[in-house]
Design brief:
By secondary structure, the protein is mainly α. The chain has helices at 2-20, 25-32, 36-43, 46-81, 87-126. The chain is flat and about 60 Å long.
């Protein structure tokens, strides 16, 4: 039984990576060299699902970090385009600038509201 568990764990890595990367169960199983039925059985295991969720979060965290690192350059590009001689380019840059600003402000406001609710909830729990 221990051998089967070790074999299963060894096969989990490629399956976890494929599923976390967004492949269908069928495609992930094929990529991991497993039967589709085996992949579905692994997905029935809460620990395996947790591993897939964690791997997906790590992928998103890395992608977010890359986007954040590029955001200043992107903002500089938009700013430069606002000075374009082409009216259509200026209009597009202005629209994107305002759209992004609105999204950022909405996100900031929502984050503040969630934090306030969490603080209120924490205060109610300690009473």
């Amino acid at each position: 039984m221990a051998t089967k568990g070790r074999r299963q764990k060894k096969a989990d890595g490629p399956l976890v990576a494929a599923l976390a990367g967004g492949l269908s169960v069928r495609a992930a199983a094929k990529k991991a060299g497993l039967a589709e039925r085996t992949a579905y059985r692994r997905l029935d295991d809460p620990n395996f699902r947790r591993d897939v969720d964690q791997a997906r979060r790590e992928i998103i965290t890395r992608a977010t970090a890359k986007l954040a690192a590029s955001s200043t350059k992107a903002a500089d590009t938009l700013r430069r385009l606002l000075g374009s001689k082409d009216e259509r380019v200026r209009l597009s840059a202005a629209r994107w600038t305002l759209r992004l600003l609105t999204h950022m402000l909405d996100h900031e406001e929502l984050s503040d509201r969630v934090a306030a609710l969490e603080n209120k909830l924490d205060g109610a729990r300690t009473r």
